Amino acid sequence: MKARYTLFALLLAWYPASLLAQVTGTVQLGGHGTSEKDNPARAGEYSTTQSGPDAAVSLQYKADGFYLGLESLALSSDQQKHDLTFELGRMVRSHTTFSKLPHRLVHDSLANLAGAIADVKIVYATDMDPAARYGIRYDELTNHTDIQLPQAPWLTISTDYREQWRQGHVQALSTSHCYSCHVVSVTRSLDLHTKDAGISAQASFGGWHVKATVSSRDAREREGAPTRTYERAQHPSLRTPLFDDRVVFDERSGPLPYGWYPSQEKDTYRLAINNANVLGFSLALSATSSEISNTHTGNEVDYDGISLAL
C-alpha cells in the first residue's frame, strides 16, 4: 500500500511594488514522502510514488483591458498541472492547460490459464518478462481560444488545440491455437502521439444559434509492434492439419506482428442550429460528416449523419 506524509508547508504572499503592483498571488512550497508495498499499481494507480518537494503557484496580473492568470501545481516530475488564462479587452479569451499523469498497470501473471482435459487439449502460458512493472506516462496540452470583435458581437470565432503523449511499457499477449493454446506475454514499448486541431464560428441572432465546426485529428504510434512465430496449427488430439480452413497462420508464416495501435487521420465537419422557441417548440438540428483513414492499411471510412430534436 502507499502512505503519503506532508512534511511541511510554507505559504508566501507576494506584494510586488512599482511596475508589478498589479500582480497578486500566492506561492506554496512543501514536501512529501511516499512508501509502498504489495501492489503499487493498485495503491497509486494514478498518483506519484516519488518522494520530494512540491509546489503550488497562483498568480494574477490585471491591467487596463488585460488579464493574465497562472495556476500551477507540481507534485513530482510525473504529476503536474499548469493552467494559463489571459483575456484582452474581452475580445480575446484564451485558456491553456498542460498536465502530466502516471498510470500504473497491473502485470497479469497468467497463472489462471494453465489447464488440460483428458483428450490432450492443453492451455499453458509463458511470461517472457515476469519481473516487469508496466505503466504509461500521460502528457497533455490543451488550448481553447474565443475571439469576439466589438464590431460583430453576435459572432464568436473559437479555436481548439490538443496534443497528448502516452509513453511507457505495457503487457502484450499473443495466443497460438489448436495443437496447444500457448499464451505468451512480452513487454511492449508504447509511444502514442495524438494531435487535435479545430476552428468554429458561432453566430447568434433573433433567438437562433448557428455553429459550424471543422476539426482534424492525427494519431500516431511511433513504436513498432512485437512479433511472434506461432506454433503449428493442428488438431489438438490427432495432430493432423484439419484446421487449415480456419487458422490462416502458424509457424509456416514466420514472425508476425500483433498488438498494433493503428495510426489514424480523421477530419470532421459539423453544423448545428438551435432555437429555444420556435412556435412553442425547442429545435436542435445538426449535421456531421467525417472521414477516417488508417495510415497502416490505407482503409478509409466515411460517415454522414443528421439529427433533429424537437
Number of strands: 17
Biggest beta sheet summary: 15 strands, mixed
Q: In which range does the helix fraction lie?
A: under 10%
Radius of gyration: 28 Å
Q: H/E order of the elements?
A: EEHEEEEEEEEEEEEEEE
Mean pLDDT: 85
How far is the N terminus from the C terminus? 53 Å
Taking pLDDT < 50 over at least 5 consecutive residues as the criterion, the unreliable ranges are 1-19
Estimate what percentage of residues fall within beta strands. Answer: over 45%
* Helical segment count: 1
Briefly note the structural class of the backbone: mainly beta
Give the overall form.
flat
Question: Explain this structure to me?
Answer:
The chain contains one helix and 17 strands. It is an all-beta fold and 310 residues long. The chain has a domain at 1-86. Strand 7 (115-117) and strand 8 (121-127) form a beta hairpin.
Brief descriptors of the model:
single chain, 310 residues, two-stranded antiparallel ribbon
